[in-house]
Design brief:
Layout: H1 5-15, E1 21-22, H2 23-33, H3 35-44, H4 55-68, H5 70-76, E2 80-82, E3 89-92, H6 97-105, E4 114-115, E5 118-119, H7 122-137, E6 139-143, E7 165-170, H8 177-186, E8 191-202, H9 207-218, E9 223-231, H10 234-247, E10 250-253, E11 263-266, H11 276-285, H12 287-302
Parallel strand pairs: 8-9, 9-10
Antiparallel strand pairs: 1-3, 2-3, 4-5, 6-7, 7-8, 10-11
Helix pairs in contact: 2-4, 9-10, 11-12
Length: 315
């Protein structure tokens, strides 16, 4: 009996509702569950380029067909959704987009992003992002805690004010000492400041809200980014790209299990100057941001980024 790949994939995802699988994981299951049908497929193949003459080639072909049939699968079965980024993951859910957001942000969420089978909350992503920023971009980052704010605007008043992480990029790392001294005398720029708004999940339901939260929280910096461990739906990423082209906020897809595999999917546009009026307001309202400004100021005075003041392990 020939495999009906679309139906087989749907049945597998439905049986494993709310769990996310890559195309390769699904292909491995198909190969193990339907060995006879897979071998029949192999025998029927008449390809002269990349022939299915071994199991590896056959598995790769199944992976490719799962990807190519994704639009048909999702058109037939609206309950099947996919994440964006690499690798794309497939899953079955009867939840609405907004319900998925509520579930992912809930402390009781059982199907949110996981690391080693443990549910990941937004707070868990901060050190992972810090690790990525340091290991891949050599950027010094620091957490901004809303609880250290004056909260003068009442409950929820800081949601659109503070980013989750802020960071400093040292432009002078490889400069000759004479150049460093010259720049100091000229009072010229030797850092760039970064800002990050972090979310567990972005989909069609919350994409515009979280993007404009990032605009509000991060547009004071040279670079502003929205960060998420999961982004669901092709149209969601398209929406982010359109918004980013208008407002300059970038997007990082954070790989919670392998931070080094995280991707800057949309580069942020650089602001040439810091919005110091907004930075001043943040400094007055939040002690963490005040500490950050002090560290940056000390760096300009001493040239020492003071590793111990940042939220990462540099070993």
């Amino acid at each position: 009996m020939a495999l009906n790949l679309t139906n087989t994939v749907f049945e597998f995802l439905q049986q494993n509702s709310e769990q996310k699988f890559t195309a390769r994981e699904i292909a491995n299951w198909i190969f193990e569950t339907y060995p006879n049908e897979c071998h029949q497929k192999q025998k029927r193949s008449t390809a002269t380029v990349n022939p299915l003459d071994n199991e590896t080639a056959l598995l790769q072909q199944i992976v490719a067909e799962i990807g190519s049939q994704r639009p048909r699968l999702q058109k037939r079965h609206s309950e099947v959704k996919t994440t964006e980024g690499r690798p794309r993951k497939y899953y079955f859910t009867e939840s609405t987009d907004s319900a998925e957001i509520d579930h992912a942000e809930s402390h009781e969420a059982s199907s949110a992003t996981k690391i080693n089978n443990s549910v990941v909350k937004e707070n868990d992503l901060y050190p992972i992002l810090s690790e990525f920023l340091w290991s891949e971009l050599e950027i010094y980052s620091k957490r901004i805690d809303e609880k250290r704010s004056r909260n003068s605007r009442g409950a929820g008043g800081n949601k659109w004010l503070y980013p989750d992480l802020i960071a400093m990029e040292d432009l002078s790392t490889d400069w000759h000492q004479e150049v460093k001294d010259c720049v100091q005398q000229y009072s010229d720029k030797k850092t760039k400041l970064w800002s990050f708004e972090v979310k567990v999940l972005i989909n069609r339901s919350n994409v515009r809200e979280v993007f404009f939260q990032a605009v509000s929280n991060s547009s004071w910096a040279n670079f502003g980014y929205l960060v998420s461990s999961e982004i669901e739906g092709t149209n969601t990423l398209k929406e982010l790209r359109m918004l980013a082209s208008l407002h300059g906020i970038g997007f990082i897809r954070l790989d919670a299990e392998n931070p080094s595999e995280s991707q800057i999917m949309i580069p942020a546009k650089e602001r040439n100057e810091i919005d110091w009026d907004t930075a001043n307001r943040l400094t007055e309202e939040n002690k963490d941001f005040l500490d950050f400004i002090k560290i940056v100021r000390q760096f300009y005075q001493t040239g020492d980024p003071r590793i111990k003041d940042w939220d990462f392990n540099s070993d």
